[in-house]
């Protein structure tokens, strides 16, 4: 139930990477045909709604094939049990023949009850560097390989970090192969995206 405030209802701020939306009621979101979510769910009602969804999935005899759990701050996430972000990250690296992966997530934490935030699984992949955009820096776990780093708590922090990486790329091109300065034009093409 939306929270009534003077002049109407207070929206829920839902963040996903660089995007922030304001939800006045729960809505469905398909994430790359891999995960379906209900976003914009008030914290007070999430657990009750999760239990109702699991009960219905059990009645339909599909609960043993899918994973349904609380995700992020205001969502309920559902995907096949055989798929998680850790596996998806490995498959992505394999498909594109990548030796390293940079991953940005706003749920890189372990919850008080011991369950992992929905982006935490990525720290278990070799050669994956995880950049956390958690609201609380203290929640960001450190791993012994140093592959997890907190970079801020907002979409602006992500933009600033990507701009930093872009500048480092330009400096690398200039410093290591001045003959390829023309390739900087390709790098600059990403500025509009950032």
Q: What percent of the residues sit in helical stretches (DSSP H or I)? A: 25-40%
Distance between the termini: 36 Å
Number of spatially distinct domains: 3
Name the beta content range.
Answer: 25-35%
C-alpha geometry: globular
Low-confidence stretches: none
Describe the largest sheet: 4 strands, antiparallel
How many β-strands, per DSSP? Answer: 11
Measured on Cα atoms, how large is the radius of gyration? Answer: 20 Å
Can you list the strand order of the major beta sheet?
5-6-8-7
Please tally the helical runs, counting DSSP H or I stretches of 4 or more residues: 4
Structural class, by secondary structure, is alpha+beta
Q: Please state the average pLDDT score.
A: 81
* Series of H and E elements: EEEEEEHEEHEEEHH
């Amino acid at each position: 139930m939306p929270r009534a405030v003077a002049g109407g209802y207070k929206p829920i701020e839902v963040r996903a990477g660089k995007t922030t939306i304001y939800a006045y009621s729960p809505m469905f979101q398909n994430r790359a045909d891999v995960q379906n979510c209900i976003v914009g769910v008030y914290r007070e009602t999430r657990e009750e709604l999760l239990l109702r969804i699991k009960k219905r999935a059990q009645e339909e005899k599909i609960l043993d094939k899918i994973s349904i759990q609380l995700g992020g701050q205001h969502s309920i996430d559902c995907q096949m049990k055989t798929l998680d972000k850790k596996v998806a990250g490995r498959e992505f690296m394999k498909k594109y023949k990548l030796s390293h992966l940079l991953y940005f997530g706003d749920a890189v934490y372990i919850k008080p009850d011991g369950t992992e935030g929905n982006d935490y699984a990525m720290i278990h992949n070799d050669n994956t560097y995880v950049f956390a955009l958690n609201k609380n820096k203290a929640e960001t776990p450190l791993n012994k390989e140093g592959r997890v780093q907190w970079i801020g708590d907002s979409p602006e922090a992500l933009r600033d970090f990507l701009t930093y990486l872009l500048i480092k790329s330009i400096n690398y091109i200039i410093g290591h192969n001045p003959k390829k300065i023309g390739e900087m034009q390709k790098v600059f093409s990403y500025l509009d995206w950032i």
